[in-house]
Amino acid sequence: MASTSDIRNGLCIRYNHDIFKIIEFLHVKPGKGPAFVRTKLKSVTTGKVIDNTFSAGHKLEDVRVETHKFQYLYNEGETYHFMNTDDYSQIALQKATLDSPDLMKEGEVVTVLINAEDGLPLSVEMPANVILEVTHTEPGVKGNTATNATKPATVETGAIVNVPLFINEGDKIKVETDKGTYKERIKE
């Protein structure tokens, strides 16, 4: 059993007859009344995100998880195939369990959380940043840089990321995976 003081990003808990992963939390101590923890929980079975508030000291049933490195191989529709980098065994996961499948390119190494009790995969954690090549974007207009102007760009995985006007087709960019936002241009 864990309590609200143990809450951290990535913690898996059993709640409402399902397993949820904590993706965001905030400890709140108001001037009047008891303290509480505001959380965002993502269901590892359906991918649905819910907001929940736990009162301070609330007991949570945590799920013991193991982490393993897997390499993304390919996808068939909604099913994504991964290979364990240690023993080369393969698993197939549904798109709903992935955090940001549109930013994952073939060969990407990800961390898979596996339930230690039954050996079933719970969720896939991407690296903090990925480097992707821009395959299509409109050319930037000179003189249009008075503010932080951005334009949409399609990257090699098919995802659309807003980038600054100086980014061109063929440039490699670093993308933050949790928000899906442009971080910087990678120079070769």
TrEMBL record:
Entry keyword set: Cytoplasm, Elongation factor, Protein biosynthesis
Domain of life according to the entry: Bacteria
InterPro entries: Elong-fact-P_C (IPR015365), NA-bd_OB-fold (IPR012340), Rib_uL2_dom2 (IPR014722), Transl_elong_fac_P/YeiP (IPR020599), Transl_elong_KOW-like (IPR013185), Transl_elong_P/YeiP_cen (IPR001059), Transl_elong_P/YeiP_CS (IPR013852), Transl_elongation_fac_P (IPR011768)
Subcellular location: Cytoplasm
Keyword Cytoplasm: yes
Gene Ontology cellular component annotations, sorted alphabetically: cytosol
Annotated SUPFAM superfamilies: Nucleic acid-binding proteins (SSF50249), Translation proteins SH3-like domain (SSF50104)
GO MF annotations in UniProt: translation elongation factor activity
GO BP term, pick one: peptide biosynthetic process
Elongation factor P C-terminal domain mapped to chain residues: 130-185
Entry-linked Gene3D superfamilies: 2.30.30.30, Nucleic acid-binding proteins
Protein biosynthesis keyword on record: yes
Pathway as given in its UniProt record: Protein biosynthesis; polypeptide chain elongation
Translation elongation factor P/YeiP central domain residues: 67-122
Location (main, coarse): cytoplasm
Cited function: Involved in peptide bond synthesis. Stimulates efficient translation and peptide-bond synthesis on native or reconstituted 70S ribosomes in vitro. Probably functions indirectly by altering the affinity of the ribosome for aminoacyl-tRNA, thus increasing their reactivity as acceptors for peptidyl transferase.
Family statement: Belongs to the elongation factor P family.
Name of protein: Elongation factor P
Organism: Seonamhaeicola algicola
